[in-house]
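Q: Got a minute? One more chain.
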Amino acid sequence: MLNVRVSAPCLPYDVVRIEHENIAFTQPMPLTGELSFLLPALDEHAELKAVLSDGTVLTAVAHVPDAQNFARVALQWSGTDPGELVAKAPKVLDGQVFHLGQSLDTSGAVLQVFSSRISDSAASGVVRLSMQAAVTANNCEAGHAARVHRTVPGEPTSTYDLTLKGPGCGAVGERLELKNILRDLKLAGNQGG
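A: Always. Here it is, folded:
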């Protein structure tokens, strides 16, 4: 985990854009101008960028060797009506979903990260990943824009964009579960040999 702290006392209530490994989320700054949160590291050599509304760009680099011990799938939702990453995992895989950010307008984004520790003693199993989204007046025609970042030991890291077509405004109020869009995680113990 990365312990992130952004200090911008001259910009209370600013919206900060946090970028990490080709994904991003937005977070409103509190009145104090001090923002603090934990972020699952998506790479051993973690690079972070905080972009403030006045154009200031703050950067940091951290070495996180333990990141190689985790399988992580990050889902960035853009816009005002973000959906949700759903992970159905066997209890033995010790999975957790982290929710980060807040999207106040169409330029905002939220991030959800499924994280599962991989260890020599971990049992094998499959984590079923899907996306849930509410159909609203804002997205019934336009749909959703999302980005996926996948980091799994033994696999190449991948980042790709998704554009989910709106189902039409007759479906406003419905909740859709989008299966088979995200590739399931097939995890096994003894990843490193």
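A: The longest strand covers residues 125-134.
Q: Perfect, thanks.
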